[in-house]
Design brief:
- With 110 residues, the chain is mostly beta strands.
- 0% of the residues lie in helices and 45% in strands.
- The strands form 2 sheets. A 6-stranded antiparallel β-sheet has the order 3-10-5-6-9-8, with no helix packed on it. A 4-stranded antiparallel β-sheet has the order 2-1-4-7, with no helix packed on it.
Amino acid sequence: MGIIVFYEGNNATQNIVQTVEDVPGQDFKPVHNDTIRSAKLYGVRPGCKIKMYDSADGSTADDFCIIMVKRANPEYVVQSFERTYEDEYVTVVHIPNNGLDGQISRIRIN
């Protein structure tokens, strides 16, 4: 089972905001609204989708980001949710509006 750690600062810095397992079917508001700016993935399973929304109800009318894990990695840092990129471990898609880092209000994990 993989672990996802959400951080207050970019590049997985500053305080840990929340830690969750990569169990599918999760849909929650972070314990601290509008503070998460990055994440560290520890052995998160391939096929896991982590979706982060600016909107508290998960609407795609505002900023959102989808992280799709392609390959497990013992420790992988998603430095920001405001960048679209792909490498051998993840595909990150950011749909911008007015800024997502530090504005996350809903998280879904499948």
